[in-house]
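Preliminary data (for renewal application), (S)-3-Hydroxyhexanoyl-CoA complex.
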Amino acid sequence: MDKVVKFERNDTIAIVTINRPPVNALSAVVRGGVVECINAAIADPQVKAIVLICAGRTFIAGADIAEFGKPPKSPGVDELLAALENSPKPIVAAIHGNALGGGLEVALVCHFRVATQEAKLGLPEIKLGLLPGSGGTQRLPRIVGVEKALEMVTSGIHVPAREALAMSLVDEIVEEGKLKEGAISFARRAVEEGKPLVKVRENNTKLEAAKGHRAIFENFRKLNARKFRGFLAPEYNIRCIEAAVNSSSFEEGLAVEREFFRELETGPQSIAQRYYFFAERQARKIPDVSDDTPTRPINKVGVLGAGTMGGGIAMNFANAGIPVTIVEIKQDALDRGLGVIKSNYERTAARGGLAPEQVNQRMDLLTGSLSLEDFADCDLIIEAVFERMDIKKQVFANLDRICKPGAILATNTSELNVDEIASITRRPEDVIGLHFFSPANVMKLLEVVRGEKTAADVIATSMKLAKMIGKVAVLAGVCHGFIGNRMLNQREREAKKLVLEGASPWDVDRVLYDFGFPMGPFRMNDLAGLDLGWVMEESKSSTLREVLCEIGRLGQKAGAGYYDYDVDRNAKPSPVTEKIIKDFIAKSGKSPRKISDEQIVERCIYPMINEGVKILEEGKALRASDIDVVWVNGYGWPVYRGGPMYYADQIGLEKILVKMKEFHAIMGDELKPASLLEKLVADGKTFANFDQLRKSPELA
Ligand code: 3H9
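Predicted structure:
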């Protein structure tokens, strides 16, 4: 077997190669191997300079996340960094793929850095609820300045090599495929020219400008308050950069970083976010669809419907360079749809997110048509038409007639029965649900809905394609509302019931906002429009929503819904809504009761979790962690709470069961505890145990 870290010599240049797939993470064996090889290179009198390089797809992508929270193994990262930084011979980090987190921190203690054009560099620890814990917060601002460093550590952005060069984060760009030669040549030049051995820690020039300017940090906090809300790590990252600026020595700043890192690492937010990191990757694995399942080529996509959903879906593929045919019924709807897409791209370009020529390149990939027949040469067709079974069936009968053999026929339905839709075709094995979330060009989640007869290669292709277009895919089975909406329906129903029991819509919204959601259910309903699916002629004044619609309070767009809205769309509690609620309660003959914030959380969240368990027991989700991935990506569940099923494990399944039994006794069968929940509690198990058992059935 190949050594994890290998030492070789090219004349006077030592090459230390890390080969630890998949991403050369800094696990103990890597750290040990690098220290050993660097020491060997230093001791070798023939060696004048050293190149640190990685095999496989990437440079070091960070610390080994699986090692966090476990007893430390020697040598530690600090020992490794010291060996590199204090080397009396120049060390050149040769970067391809990604240099992330601890990987970039390693590169920053090397005396020089070269990178391929495609390489990306960043400190993404924030995404794990952490901060760069090996000097990154102290060294980065010394190279790129305080403002850029603040932005990089709090966003976790991966900076492309060209930009990194402009910020002096790398010293030279090397031709793709010639990294080793380029790094060796750089190392030779460093020796020949007697380049001084740069120690980033010694350079304070870029920090001086920020010294004593507290406003830089205050403004940054203010500007990002909304984005950082609820998270601990952004504030700790900022404080570390402040420490870099204001400490009397590098070591003092480093000590601050170490202390904050330890606090975050052992805190509940980072533990939840690390769980989530692996959950997202686990979701790609489907037990009966092996990784080597052949996939179908997707060179052209068809999208039926140029409305908000269809347009957003089409943009995903154009962004990935895949041509799309968009079909609409009427020319004006098609023109409008394409116009909206163009202005979306133009807005992104105006913000600097796209080069102007890219707008045209992407628009050129989109072809509008009024004829379904134009789907004949598409490899994947996604329909985004009105949510009605009869309409969907008609569409699929046509697609079956028109589309070439082997084409994947996908429905974007958010709740309809995919098997029933598939049954109208002669090829149900080619039919799948691809449930995008609105706005489809922005939202990361894709529920991939597997029909009873969907072929394995259709599933494998859909999962692969999702990654290609930057989506996080989760496999769901056919059931009403699939994973996400099926659980959301529980929350919606209970929130509305709570309001008729005495809680105000603003109380419910405030509690869920404080829990970490971007907005509560009533604000969300107002935003979506209360008239969604409502018809005046059929309205019976039997629900709060119906009454609001009947008097024209259709939501934010009408300036009034559950809330009143001012011209700037700020929401204010509405006395009109309050009066209607009061009348409803009076009519029911019950008295409003005082409902605590804790009760609101329990009533809104526990039934959702209970529904999640039912989804699991019916096999409609593969794992509890898949449900968490759906909720974090599609419904704004705060990632620092892991997801609803992870959250349930933290508060204890027994507590949830007790409450569900209470709700069931008072409110009937729609709140009946799931039998799997009862079983897990009886066995003293958690959802994490459940997933573990699924992974290794022999343990069950
Ligand atoms: C850190 O560095 C802290 C320091 O500041 C201080 C230390 C003291 N560890 O994502 P993929 C696995 S914190 C362990 O599908 P891609 C991943 O689970 C770290 N495992 O590939 C998956 O395994 P499996 C800072 C890791 O090509 C496989 O690799 N760094 C790690 O789509 C492939 O991953 C980060 O946060 C890891 N660090 O994307 C970077 N990284 O096949 C985290 C990956 O069994 N990583 N794995 O499911 C990434 O962002 C992406 O993996 C990357 C590649 C962009 C590199």
